[in-house]
Amino acid sequence: MDDIVRLAMAKWPHVPDCYGWLGLDARGNWYMRDDRAQAAGAFDSGKPGSRGSLLKHEKLIDFIQRNYAADALGRWFFQNGPQRVYVELEATPWIWRIEGDGTVRAHSGELVTVKRCLLDELGRVYLQTERGLGLVHTQDVTHVAERVEAGHWSPEQEPAVSLPGRYGYVRSPQRDRPAQGESP
Q: What is the pTM of this model?
């Protein structure tokens, strides 16, 4: 986490959390979701306009990714100064990119080590790493096949519906947020 963020948190400790305004898609892209996008539907609904605006500003994306973390309930957020901005996930909290040599990186660029390889009922590939569970980017599935054929990974079947509970993440903090006055 950036030092400037830590200082802002100490200076303004009681800033309310923000829900629904930021989304991460299944390809590792960040989206800003204004009122219109939120009114169009849930981030993962597939409804026109529900994703919001694709973020393209590299420094903003880097800032988000440096300050991206999860709370004790498995809700992922971006710590924006003193405000916690919860992230709507299309799939998982991490999107993995795999290089030809088998190196695996998070959508944020961090190197990770694969612990398990999973395959859901729709053929989507997930990797469990020391950072948590993530979906393999669709463009990199051929690299997964190469790793499997070489005997490096052995995919295990896992239904997609069980992944958030089993691996401790919440896809929609907005949908699952505590009622006002209730403790998280």
A: 0.88
